[in-house]
Amino acid sequence: MARLTEIGWEDFHALPLEAKRAYLERTEGDGMPYHTLFAQQFDRATLERLCALANRIRFINKSKEGALYLKSVLAHKRAMLYFSQPSSRTFLSHLAACQIMGLTTGSVRDAATSSEFKGESHEDSIRTFSSYFDMIIMRSPEQGLAEKMAWELSNSSRPIPILNAGSGKDQHPTQALLDIYTLVRSFEEKGGLDGRTVVFCGDLMRGRTVRSLSYLLTNFRDVRQVFVAPQELQVPADVVMILAKKGIDFEVTDDLRGAVKTADAVYMTRIQDEWDSSKGASAKIDTSRFKFGAEELKLLPKDGIIMHPLPRRDEIATCCDHDPRAMYWRQMRNGMWIRAALIAGTFGFEKTVMECGY
Amino acid sequence: MARLTEIGWEDFHALPLEAKRAYLERTEGDGMPYHTLFAQQFDRATLERLCALANRIRFINKSKEGALYLKSVLAHKRAMLYFSQPSSRTFLSHLAACQIMGLTTGSVRDAATSSEFKGESHEDSIRTFSSYFDMIIMRSPEQGLAEKMAWELSNSSRPIPILNAGSGKDQHPTQALLDIYTLVRSFEEKGGLDGRTVVFCGDLMRGRTVRSLSYLLTNFRDVRQVFVAPQELQVPADVVMILAKKGIDFEVTDDLRGAVKTADAVYMTRIQDEWDSSKGASAKIDTSRFKFGAEELKLLPKDGIIMHPLPRRDEIATCCDHDPRAMYWRQMRNGMWIRAALIAGTFGFEKTVMECGY
Amino acid sequence: MARLTEIGWEDFHALPLEAKRAYLERTEGDGMPYHTLFAQQFDRATLERLCALANRIRFINKSKEGALYLKSVLAHKRAMLYFSQPSSRTFLSHLAACQIMGLTTGSVRDAATSSEFKGESHEDSIRTFSSYFDMIIMRSPEQGLAEKMAWELSNSSRPIPILNAGSGKDQHPTQALLDIYTLVRSFEEKGGLDGRTVVFCGDLMRGRTVRSLSYLLTNFRDVRQVFVAPQELQVPADVVMILAKKGIDFEVTDDLRGAVKTADAVYMTRIQDEWDSSKGASAKIDTSRFKFGAEELKLLPKDGIIMHPLPRRDEIATCCDHDPRAMYWRQMRNGMWIRAALIAGTFGFEKTVMECGY
């Protein structure tokens, strides 16, 4: 933490993502974050520690005694959920994570209430929340805001951690964490994630989840990435460049069925038409071949899994829902556990929980 | 629980209400509900057990030690209050019931937030909530939705109980429970509810509370029911038919004062003009003779009670509020206790609470 | 408490503020409030007890064990936050105070939800909340409403305390408490508040915080009050009259810099243009000389402090924020502690907390 106080905002902001990582750790070299701002701040070791902690928490939580123990771990802490861009799903998942670890919470989650803060600067609003709470979990339509607020708070007389629950089109690090956790967990008794093939399908241009997950997968060995999309929605060049530079094996295609046959995981995404530059632009794109249904299910290897960040429209047919390979509901629940792990880790309770008697 | 997985949705949905009861029990033949969907699922024995449990909880809660014990009973559980049809009164009562038993809660309660879920199917939304919580308390303008969701969840890989906090014009089972609890409690030291006369007055056509309570009263012996309303708002034929079939003594009249003289309980209701088929239709009906005021108070027997589901407009004059027979405020508070009892029972803690040392 | 039941509403309402005080105490002559309705109900002894209790609570809360102890003190109580006039800042501060002392909470805080209650009388709404909760923390645009509700509840079969979190243009007693607490705390190791000079600057006509704080300062010895404002926004005659009657040393001026030189505390306020009688009226007033910036900072004595009730616009330049004399962020956090103290005191736990072993 000390270090964000030793660098000016402009200098910090200008650093490449990977160089920012060191400034966000709880303690130097520990890996565990104090502020969680972007997916790229997690290296493999930290990802695996968080997955292990999430596994531990979900196991402890199975018994009533264990659940009550977990609720005692952070019972002296209070978290503020500041969602100026409403999202009930992400809100509830973070809320549940807080409740599991015992934090009490306050929230601003609707446009009407949050507009009250429009008269004042973001800095002042965040300082207000930091007066009353011990952590701020924030979601905002404004790109980069979480990063700025983290720097501001670290340089205030009341530094508290920021957890970015989504900022603009840009970053949604806990979504990336839950995706990695789902993959790690799905393959942990089948030889692990190294060497697997992950197929991304849908709107790969505008989905921030794809960008983050693609990056985090480069932390693992020999994970092949396949991008399946209509040409207009294909994965952007900067993502491809990172993979090429790192020597990652990847493929860009429009053949979903071909890709499914070789997939260990198929990551389906929704067409994000809310970002259309002109209304209805997405509707003109033929997306019919980029949906997962009964046919694709037949082609998927027996150990393969189907993922989706949800909500879905018709990218995955409901007939797939009861297939044991459909992982998207469990993926959502995984989000709650990995967020509980992240919050415990942020406050320095990783070791306490890992080594407790439950 | 096992049993909802052994019947298809169409078959289940087509069953008569009483036949559905067995599918909703925690364990076969136990009576205590797992899903609470409609008033008719409660038989007399279960009603009396819930009333006894509510009495026990309110007694235990009188001391600080008792209150803290109660908060420990379900401290390992989390409830989701999903109110797509806002109702702060019902919301707060369920919230308080959860808090008494120690559950932490999440909520969606305003139209703006809940509209986010409109893009996805009800099934997917409910699966989302079931990922993060251990119980869903739901209120919806859509008739039958709670029943569908209960079936869906019971057939998912994460079955959790549904508590219907009001669905459409149709069912509001916990309102019926609190009405019964208020009657049982009011007469428990005066010989009980059997043989009493209950007078319903007001908008009997559209009030779902009247329909539910009328039905539940048939579980008791010789409870005479009197329906007082303007002709346009009288009790519907299907309610009358059930009473007739069961050989219940009942009367349909427009003479409130005459009815009050013989009443053990007078259940006043509000004109529900929000359901008017054309705007202002209710305003044309002369309801002046269907209000409870100083005159009616004089006519009411000294052990008689006045009930109202609240909110009221002018159906009961405020001059009645301080009369010891005015039971409507206590009735509201009873709602909190019976809901706490229902939640405790749903999770299988009836015996634990009944037999605890407090 | 007994006493509000011995006086009719009209008689109580007509009493001068100071005469009402005795009716609001927990127990006769104790000073500690049962209902908290207006700033003027606090005498110096009670203010000092609340400040001491707030200090104690913030000290205890520093350790995890202490924080958990505090959470146990009122864990058997539930508070309702009824904010029909939304204010997230005040809402969150009261919420955090409740959480620190262990109360669970329910809330109505948005216009849409609270409009549901418009169909019924305020009395009925408040009775509803009193059915489910043990305390009502209310904010309302309606002047005097909290007082009426306190009288109503004290005369009902379920009396519970009312805490006024702001009613109309009129009263906001907990803001006055946190202001006093900030002053007391800032000077407690420097000889105390007696004999100090407090400078008020900005919109002194419409700020209820100025009115309340000015009054409470008369409880202390020889506190000189200086009012700095453009003529159109100067302190109203009734405030001046109270000071004159009590023989308080005060000054009315438009010279901020001159006042700052002699100030122990400068209390800056925002132009409250939301109360403008015609739109834009405030914008025509030249307020440029009533802002605190780098120049004023130079003139402020080294032990002087800068206060602001927040939110601010440009009344205080952000370049002042890191000066150790800038007290406004700590002032906000003080609000949380003094409210926690007030709630503990309201429920009779002052002694318990003051004498606990932490």
Quickly describe the structure.
Chain A has helices at residues 9-14, 17-24, 44-60, 64-73, 88-101, 111-115, 122-132, 145-154, 173-187, 208-217, 237-245, 256-261, 294-299, 328-346, 350-354, and strands spanning 78-83, 104-108, 135-140, 162-167, 197-201, 224-228, 250-253, 265-268, 305-307.
What can you tell me about this protein's structure?
Three copies of one chain form a homotrimer. Chain A is α/β, with parallel strands linked by helices and 358 residues long. The first copy, chain A, has 15 helices and nine strands. A five-stranded parallel sheet of chain A has the order 7-6-5-8-9. A four-stranded parallel sheet of chain A has the order 2-1-3-4, sandwiched between helices. Chain A is globular, with a radius of gyration of 20 Å. Chains in contact: A-B, A-C, B-C. The A-B interface holds A 61, 64, 67-68, 71, 86-89, 92-93, 95-96, 99, 109-112, 310-313, 318, 329-330, 332-333, 335-336 and B 72, 75-76, 78, 80, 104, 106, 108, 110, 112-114, 116-117, 119-121, 123-124, 127-129, 131-133, 156-158.
